[in-house]
């Protein structure tokens, strides 16, 4: 999308629309007159978002509960949409899952779920919805929601970062690959956001009910911004065709710190890792 353009009448596909950033973005787009195509694996939450979007006067053309890690389900969803509607104007990969843990505590399923949902899920959406946008020759925009963990080495985030760094790298390549088709690409790098993801994040080998663990997770949540604020940043970034979209200035500053002062950053990350591990004290299997 070109700078200053709005979303009125734009066909916008969003994953993860049942809650958090996805829901907030869908409702904001509904207010702006976009034509919405929504999905999430949470069927009840998705129905609530659809009802709320329509109550705001928004148009939800198609919605379907599915898991984006299921390639066949995504293909069927895309085929069904493209039989009736032209190509999307905006595609937003927002759905994601999270798990923390040290390498000796993470299970194979933790690693696999991070890649399947956070990386392969967006790839499934990209390969089924972006080629029709290219063929339509009308331009458009692709948004991939990565994370601060896709920029910097946050403690215990190895599995999560594997997926989110991958999504950022994919986005950077597509930023240039799709430019000649007038399709902008943005990668969103949120820090803490007040979403169900913060409340339900798996911490491998750690009892989340432990008072000490709850103290630290609440402290983390205390720095979180609202999904509505994140949605506002995302849509503003799309309008301006920004590559990196920050939802809070602390992440911008941290990434600048990493890029310009590697040695102090390395020392800080080592110290942060020690503090993090002391705070959570994972139990042995």
The structural domain count equals: 1
Structural class category: alpha/beta
CATH homologous group name: NAD(P)-binding Rossmann-like Domain
N- and C-termini, Cα separation: 50 Å
Low-confidence stretches: none
Order of strands, main sheet, comes to 3-2-1-4-6-7-9
Strand content: 5-15%
Strand segment tally: 9
The CATH architecture assignment turns out to be 3-Layer(aba) Sandwich
Instruction: Indicate the radius of gyration in whole angstroms.
Output: 19 Å
Mean pLDDT across all amino acids: 91
At a glance:
The chain has 285 residues and is α/β, with parallel strands linked by helices. It has helices spanning 20-31, 43-55, 71-84, 108-136, 158-177, 196-200, 211-222, 227-239, 249-260, 262-280; strands at residues 11-15, 35-40, 59-65, 90-93, 99-100, 140-145, 183-188, 202-203, 244-245.
What is the strand and helix layout of this fold?
Elements: E1 11-15, H1 20-31, E2 35-40, H2 43-55, E3 59-65, H3 71-84, E4 90-93, E5 99-100, H4 108-136, E6 140-145, H5 158-177, E7 183-188, H6 196-200, E8 202-203, H7 211-222, H8 227-239, E9 244-245, H9 249-260, H10 262-280
Parallel strand pairs: 1-2, 1-4, 2-3, 4-6, 5-8, 6-7, 7-9
Features:
10 helices, 52% helix, alpha/beta
What do these coordinates show?
A seven-stranded parallel sheet has the order 3-2-1-4-6-7-9, sandwiched between helices. Helices cover 52% and strands 14% of the residues. It has helices at residues 20-31, 43-55, 71-84, 108-136, 158-177, 196-200, 211-222, 227-239, 249-260, 262-280, and strands spanning 11-15, 35-40, 59-65, 90-93, 99-100, 140-145, 183-188, 202-203, 244-245. The chain has ten helices and nine strands. α1 crosses α8, α4 (108-136) packs parallel to α5 and α9 (249-260) crosses α10 (262-280). It has a single domain (11-280), classed as NAD(P)-binding Rossmann-like Domain (Rossmann fold), CATH 3.40.50. The relative contact order is 0.14. It has 285 residues and is an alpha/beta fold.
């Amino acid at each position: 999308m070109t700078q200053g353009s709005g979303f009125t009448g734009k066909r916008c596909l969003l994953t993860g629309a049942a809650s958090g950033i996805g829901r907030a973005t869908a409702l904001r787009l509904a207010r702006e007159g976009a034509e919405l195509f929504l999905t999430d694996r949470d069927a009840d939450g998705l129905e609530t978002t659809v009802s709320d979007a329509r109550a705001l006067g928004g148009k939800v053309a198609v919605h379907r509960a599915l898991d984006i890690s299921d390639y066949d389900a995504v293909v069927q969803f895309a085929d069904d949409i493209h039989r009736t509607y032209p190509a999307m104007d905006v595609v937003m990969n927002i759905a994601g899952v999270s798990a923390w843990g040290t390498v000796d505590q993470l299970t194979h399923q933790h690693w696999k779920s991070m890649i399947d949902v956070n990386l392969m899920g967006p790839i499934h959406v990209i390969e089924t919805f972006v080629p029709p946008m290219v063929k339509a020759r009308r331009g458009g925009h692709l948004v991939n929601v990565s994370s601060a963990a896709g920029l910097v080495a946050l403690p215990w985030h190895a599995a999560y970062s594997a997926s989110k760094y991958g999504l950022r790298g994919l986005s950077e390549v597509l930023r240039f690959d799709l430019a000649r088709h007038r399709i902008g690409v943005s990668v969103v790098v949120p820090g803490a956001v007040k979403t169900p993801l913060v409340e339900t994040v798996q911490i491998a080998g750690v009892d989340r009910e432990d008072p000490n663990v709850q103290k630290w997770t609440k402290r983390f949540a205390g720095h979180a911004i609202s999904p509505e604020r994140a949605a506002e940043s995302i849509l503003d970034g799309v309008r301006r065709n920004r590559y990196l979209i920050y939802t809070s200035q602390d992440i911008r500053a941290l990434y600048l710190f990493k890029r310009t002062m590697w040695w102090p950053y390395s020392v800080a990350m080592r110290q942060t890792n020690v503090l993090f591990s002391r705070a959570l004290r994972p139990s042995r299997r």
